[in-house]
Amino acid sequence: MTASPSQGPFYEVLYTSELEPSVPVAAIADIVRRSRGFNAAHQITGLLVFDGGRFCHYLEGPADMVHALALRISADPRHTGFRRLHAATRVGPRRLPGHPMSYGLAYDEAEIDAVAALTGEAATQRLMQALPRLELEP
């Protein structure tokens, strides 16, 4: 695993999407497993939240890597309705240091609804506030 610097500047992206109906929920485990290896090798940290039908995904890291990854993710046929809520350069410590890809289950659909109702930094802050209420897997 490549070490990821803890200070910025970082590029961060937050989006929501829906699981493509023909994709089995079991595919998410493979997505998380592969993402952890890729992200660690490219100094990307993040969190994927799933509520049984929708995703909320936050990524942070080197601008070129995160931007390219977000473009690839937006074209992935395993989900639909890709909606970018936030994308910006940020200076300061990582929000999720040491987490190449955390995975969180949201048992209440209202968690993703609350994030999706916002845009920009407010959406990202709302996701970070939800962390204590998610079942997280580092």
From TrEMBL:
Q: Which residues form the BLUF domain?
A: 10-102
* Matching InterPro entries: Acylphosphatase-like_dom_sf (IPR036046), BLUF_domain (IPR007024)
Q: Which organism encodes this protein?
A: Aquincola tertiaricarbonis
Query: Which SUPFAM superfamilies does this UniProt record tie to the protein?
Result: Acylphosphatase/BLUF domain-like (SSF54975)
Q: Which domain of life is it from?
A: Bacteria
> So which residues are the signal peptide here?
none
Q: Give the protein's recorded name.
A: BLUF domain-containing protein
Q: Which SMART domains match?
A: BLUF (SM01034)
